[in-house]
Amino acid sequence: MDYFEIEGGTPLNGTVSVFAAKNAVLPIIAASILASEGTTILRNIPDTADVRTMLSVVRQLGANIEFDKKSHKISIDATDINSCEAPYELVKRMRASFLVMGPLLARFGTAKVSQPGGCAIGARPIDQHIRGFANLGAKITEKHGYTIARAKKLAGNILHFDRPTHTGTENIIMSAVLAEGTTVIINAAQDPEVVDLCNFLRKMGAKIKGAGTSRITIEGTTSLHGVKHFPIGDRLEAGTYLFAALATGGKVKIEGCIPEYLSVVLFKLEAMGAKITEGKNYIELRAPRRPKCVEIITDPYPGFPTDLQAMAMAVLCISEGTGVIWERIFESRFLHVMELQRLGANITILGDRATVIGVDKLEGASVMASDIRAGAGLLIAALSARGKSRISRVYHIDRGYQRIEEKLVCLGAKIERKSE
Ligand code: EPZ
User: Fold this and answer.
1) In what order do the strands lie in the sheet with 158-160?
2) Which domains are assigned to the chain?
3) Model confidence, pTM
4) pLDDT tens across 25-36, in order?
């Protein structure tokens, strides 16, 4: 297994660009299943473990897939899909594989998908997805760890989510695009990645209104075709480098991401003392000598993203004063805290709140990644720490970032990937 060896203390300086957003690319690859003719071409796609897993799921269904990793281009021909089953071996690797349920049900009237397990950050049930499919007329059964959905023809309906669910909204939209009649989703997720999926589906011929608001209307149509698409830049990748620059006292320019998608995050970065300059498709950050502590509350978009919580915490650890993080999306998204404490951080957890008392410097140590974003948070802490650190289980980080060390080296970081 790979690990990172890091020599902390070097300010990050320079310019990097981001790839297409993982959390837009995964539902868009699933949505390509809906095309009964033509080929889908996607560009700027990162070669990460999650992208490879989602491609394996769709290939397993019978689609013809090519991934040119040099040009970051994917082509998917879903005309000859001949299976509606997503197996346990693939779904257990990545819960987002469950996103194939909606498109399979819509196009073929049947879907058999292994139930995604929980994961490090919480139970992550899929009850709202299932309730949504049933609301559109699907018959749902559960057998031997699989969820099976069947419907001769889905019928449009009005459905309410108890709380905004990112992939839940995406799964229901992808099932409603070929339903009979109109579907209205109330309390829908408003994330930019949901909007990008809807833009992709509209290009395929779907009729969708209200994407990016809490009320999305989908008018069912008869068939959809393959299209070309350049997904939005990854705001979470961009945010990771911005917090890394803040933690190390550097100055960076991140290209390929739209500042508006990170507006609450940029507001918090400025409150921490960063100087932010925004362009149409880039963000520049100049760090202060030492950041200031703030309070952060994670919330559904446009609130502060839970996926940048670990990165923000890493910076609070060496900021002036006392900060508080209130994690309101997942019930156990503080696994990185124990690892940060190994680096000398002063953090106390009380339920869903973490109080961080800033220390002057963290000290290098050996730590372990537990999920994609916790791993990225530890990376940031190690880059700011005095001395050497080692981060093991890098495969977690590789799920969401293509060889993150290469971009960090471009910014001057002293980091090396080694194998155990
Ligand atoms: C998406 O997960 C993202 N993944 C996650 O990013 C992200 O952390 C999360 O949204 C929140 O923004 C992808 O887009 C592939 P939710 P998702 O449904 O859709 C509860 C990363 O690192 N819930 O919005 O699974 C759930 O337990 C990953 O890139 C139900 O109770 O998250 C959570 O508490 C990690 N029942 C809350 O809703 C359901 O049926 C929000 O979850 C569905 C969700």
Assistant:
1) 158-160, 182-186, 215-219, 207-209
2) 2-18+233-419 (3.65.10.10), 22-229 (3.65.10.10)
3) 0.98
4) 999 999 999 999
